[in-house]
Specification:
Blueprint: H1 2-35, H2 37-50, H3 54-61, H4 69-86, H5 89-111
Length: about 110
């Protein structure tokens, strides 16, 4: 008899907890959508997944951190042409994005501290 009562209490208690959790989750979603936090988080994730770090760009092009801009361009031209003739468009795109990333860093260095 005591085991049956205990089992009923556990079942009822877990049902109450599940409903409370679902209600709290819905309320959190409503609060996030009102404040715009959800959209901002999604945009941040999308932006972060599309950007390339300078270390990743250097690794793709196979250049060191202290390489000159001419070395970077020479390596870019070699890899870009090699992938244009008998490589894949994906790799060619990665090589191009790596050059763009390093180019923007190089331009920021040329402008100097503002």
């Amino acid at each position: 008899m005591a085991a049956r009562i205990l089992a009923n209490l556990i079942v009822i208690g877990s049902g109450v907890m599940a409903r409370a959790f679902v209600q709290a989750y819905r309320q959190a979603l409503a609060n996030a959508s009102r404040s715009g936090a959800a959209q901002e988080a999604v945009q941040t994730i999308r932006r972060a997944s599309k950007t390339m770090t300078d270390s990743e760009a250097r690794q793709i092009l196979g250049v060191a951190e202290n390489s000159s801009w001419q070395d970077i361009l020479q390596k870019y031209d070699t890899l870009f042409e090699r992938n244009a003739t008998n490589g894949s468009f994906y790799l060619q795109s990665k090589v191009h994005r790596a050059k763009e990333c390093l180019e923007s860093i190089e331009q920021m260095k040329a402008q100097g501290p503002s």
